[in-house]
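Session log. Operator J.P. requested a structure for one protein chain; no other inputs attached. Running the standard single-chain path with token output.
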Amino acid sequence: MRKFPIVAVLAAVLTSLLSHASAAPTDHWYVLQFDGKRAGWIREHTTETAGVITTSSEMHLEIRRGQMSMSIALESTFEESTRGEPIRAVSVMSLGSMPTRTEYVFNAESNTVTISTSSGGAARETTADRPDGGWLTPAAASEFVLRRLAAGATEISFSTIDPASGLEPMRVEMRGITPGTTEVLGKTVPSLSCETEVSSAPGLTQRAHLAPDGTLLRMKMNLAGMEFEQIAADRELALSPLEAPEIMARTFVKPSRPLPDIRRVHRGVYDLKMPRGRMPDIPETSAQRVERIDDKTVRVTIAEDDLRAAPAQDAQNPIYLEASAVLDASDPEIIALADRSARPGVTDPAEVAERLRMAVFRTIKSKSLGVGLASASEVCRTREGDCSEHAVLLAALLRAKGIPARVVSGLVYAEEFLGEKGIFGYHMWAQALLERDGEMVWVDLDGTLGSFDVFSGTHIALAVSAMRDDDAMNSLAVLAPLLGELQIDVIDAGL
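Structure written below.
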């Protein structure tokens, strides 16, 4: 049975909420609501000690996928000097049974960043170049926003870094800032309202209400077809009992007509439409061709029996072989599983890839909806997860055997799931760069499929990602504007 990575997408979007500047060095508590149901809380805290400003954020969210409840927990800490120089940042993300911790230490003399990650019993350390200038540390961003508000600005733009999203600076755009009022804790208070968009979640607009000192009072946006709100609260209210909303079924896409036996669909043609806003660009792969019809529509043609050569640079790109926190191909447990699964004497990369795919299907014993996005190292040890865990484990195993690999986030057709019939649901799988007829092509490999199932022309790729440490969550956040909005017209489902 196929399962869908909505939790991973949701977590990727929610990391952007932790990047909002907050000026006052005190505790701020928020209630998180989905369609009026209290689903979680956020705490933001800023302190200054011995010339070091520490900005911390915590988020806890309870949701359901079908009847399965699960928790999402994100923690983020950033230390900087009073001059706005970055010192250290830490992110802890709990989407599975084992948290993933990433620490960034900024080295001023060498202009580098030391990155230490631990997940699922594996640890690794790497070094990266410090992000180019032009971005502000969290406290410096807060001060910048406060100065611009005091000057009466109607638009504010700045770039900052959220350790939960990696080292890639994110752009925050605040537009149409106007004075007014909003309701908080049963009181109507003065506020400044604006439309806010963060580059890590393009196309997802938030309506924010700020206090005169720049502190967020209230934020609202549409997410997965639901109204999501972040509302200022006191500690008691924020930590009061939660009502976990069901989010998976809301994201299913009912196509214009049902498809025939999907095991026989080798070619599919679909029009993907957004009724509001622009349909984002989606990737072409070896099996998928994309044609833009108009601003709101793209036509996707999938032909698994007619693969096109991958771009020449893909075969030389080291990102498809490197280890990362999510795909730690250097983990001894990953290497051991890859070696056992491929078996001695098997050298053909295509045969190795298929053996690894089947190994993933057999290794993950518990096909569970209770995991959000666990790392390959964790999955290798717990043997539990849904489609995202199958995808990351398979990609890590492929890299461990020297086969370039990446993950795909997209849609797959299900004849029936969670009581709904004939729907497309969000899904994740892997791709391996393999030689076919003298050309290097990206071959789709779905670890959730057993030996009697086949990869069909109903897998629609919406995003591809190498799952690098600085891009893993951002690559998932791009799907957020589609949730609950996307429409699919079936043009052809060839047999």
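Operator note: The chain has two domains: 6-238, 252-494.
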